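All the exercises in this workshop are built on plain-text protein records. An example says more than a description, so a record of this kind follows:
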Amino acid sequence: MADELVHYDVVGGTATITLDSPHNRNALSAQLRRELSESLDKARADDAVRVIVLTHTGPVFCAGMDLKEARGAGAGDQGVNEFPKILEQLWTSPKPVVAKLAGPARAGGIGMVAATDIAVAVHEATFAFSEVRIGVVPAIISLTVLPRLTARAAHELFLTGDTFDAKRAVEIGLLNSAVPAEELDGEVARYVKALALGGPKALAATKELLSKPRPATPSEGFEAMNKLSVGFFASEEGQEGITAFAQKRKPNWVPEG
């Protein structure tokens, strides 16, 4: 549709979800939120999809909530009420999610970046938790952002609202890598290819493992982790992977090409 704000495309096991609302810097308007959520549901439900890439058109990845829609609305009518669902969809997706940024992200846009598993941006991309500067709180996005950032950086950047660059975003844990613009496609493709080599069920279980609270000591976790491990070693997927390794071939879940 010509008037859609989010495009969905699947090629070779990779679902690419593209924010396409450059007129308002890909702000999280009601229409964009709805279409983004629908696209994430579609990708999560499609067994042919192995990896999800979240990207954008225009010079800005995402400027955060649409402030024009927020102005004058009461608490019950604020679009931010729908945002936790999107962050949850990204964070809990059984398929790995890669964020691809050719430009800046602000506020809620950074929340989405933090909710993905891998995030890559161009050197020129900038970031800011701008909420306090308009008198609001980065509350919802704190749930995905704070697990990524060092504590000192979180206090500084949440409280000041200062802009920081991609180099620092890598240093504090928000991004995996920052590259020259001409290398962005190749860097994202490198991550996508690596992620697609993993077994689909193993990747989903590993994502869940990474999100769980750690036991107080290793001894407290060995029983549960051993059960998880042996279950996968004996599973159909695990046996296929072991057999493929012995036969020096790719497992049957690796996309062609």
About this structure: Strands lie at 6-11, 14-19, 51-56, 97-101, 105-106, 118-122, 126-128, 164-165, 177-179.
